[in-house]
Design a protein that fits this description.
Blueprint lengths: L11 H17 L14 E6 L5 H12 L3 E6 L11 H10 L4 E6 L4 H7 L6 E7 L5 H16 L16 E5 L6 H12 L3 E5 L15 E3 L2 H6 L4 E4 L18 H8 L3 H5 L6 E3 L12 H5 L5 H20 L5
Bound molecules: N-carbamoyl-L-aspartate.
């Protein structure tokens, strides 16, 4: 594996290797000294064309804990705001000797373009491209599901196991969500069943070709007792014409598609509540759901570091011990 661009590219064994390696990385993060020497002398550039809190910090922490040199390149304050192209930015990174480029970009396909352009030969990790893909988010989501739904006292992370037999509901603004797309493919590869739940205006064209079911009714899907409920952020910044072009009102959206106290109470005992963040509290998710005992939202963030350590390790150090 040279690049990590899309969960659709991952085989079952590659996905399991990433998750199992993340478990090992998570164990090292329980130690007093969290730093490993594995990527000493390597340079990882975080190239962020879109705002981000947790993904950028998480990649930075992951690279630093593997002892890589980290350069954070955010577009604000760089020559990109003077109109420099992706190509010239790539050539600059090449000239600086980047071994890996972690890229987030508002254009779907930007990570592919960087990886396959021939502008440089660095490893490319997609940290979110437009509405297309966000593979490390899906991996940390599967890691978190596996720990809660498959893990046992002897094997708390469920190492070696996939998610066969699990049912995951992914709810909300599917249309604009790279998190949903990345999860649909990875969960399918890992044997889980996925139901996308969204109002008709927020279901992408062509969804019938995806390996999942679609429902317009959150309540009907909840009645089937899903094992995990993943709420998506309503992405107002991607809604040209404003949210009003997609649903009548915030109150209406919350009433039909929000995870509120009443819906929370209908979930089976073991069901976990997830959200990639940032949350719109009071829109797609209520405080009771976000902060309640079923919520694994904070743990998703913690697990993100171990998953990104695993990805950087496997991509850059490969088989070397
Ligand atoms: C997601 C993203 O940026 O795609 N957030 C994240 O990476 N934690 C989801 C979102 O922005 O809603």
């Amino acid at each position: 594996m040279k690049h990590l661009l899309s969960t659709a590219d991952l085989s079952r064994s590659e996905a399991l290797l990433l998750l199992d390696t993340a478990s090992q990385m998570a164990q090292t993060q329980q130690r007093e000294i969290k730093k490993l020497p594995t990527l000493r002398g390597r340079t990882v550039v975080n190239l962020f064309f879109e705002d981000s809190t947790r993904t950028r910090i998480s990649f930075e922490a992951a690279a630093k804990r593997l002892s890589a040199d980290v350069i954070n390149f955010s577009v604000k304050g760089s020559a990109v705001s003077k109109g420099e192209s992706l190509k010239d930015t790539a050539l600059t990174l090449h000239a600086m000797g980047a071994d890996a480029v972690v890229v987030r970009h508002w254009a779907s396909g930007a990570a592919y373009q960087l990886a396959h352009s021939g502008w440089f030969d660095a490893t490319v990790v997609n940290a979110g491209d437009g509405t297309h893909q966000h593979p490390t988010q899906a991996l940390l989501d599967s890691f978190t599901m596996r720990r809660h739904l498959v893990g046992t006292p002897d094997n708390p992370d469920g190492v070696g196991h996939d998610l066969a037999g699990q049912h995951v509901a992914i709810v909300g603004d599917v249309l604009h969500s790279r998190v949903a797309r990345a999860n649909v493919h990875l969960l399918h590869t890992l044997g889980a069943r996925v139901t996308l739940v969204a109002p008709p205006t927020l279901v992408p064209v062509g969804v019938s070709t995806w390996p999942c079911d679609t429902s317009y009714s959150f309540d009907e899907t909840l009645a089937t007792g899903p094992d995990a409920v993943m709420m998506l952020r309503v992405q107002r910044e991607r809604m040209s014409g404003g949210a009003g072009a997609f649903f009548p009102s915030v109150v209406e959206y919350m009433r039909r598609y929000g995870l509120d106290r009443d819906r929370l109470a209908t979930l089976p005992e073991h069901t976990i509540v997830m959200h990639p963040g940032p949350m719109n509290r009071g829109l797609e998710i209520s405080a009771e759901a976000a902060d309640g005992p079923r919520s694994v939202i904070v743990e998703q963030v913690t697990n993100g570091v171990a998953v990104r350590m695993a990805a950087l390790y496997l991509l850059l150090a490969g088989e070397t011990p």
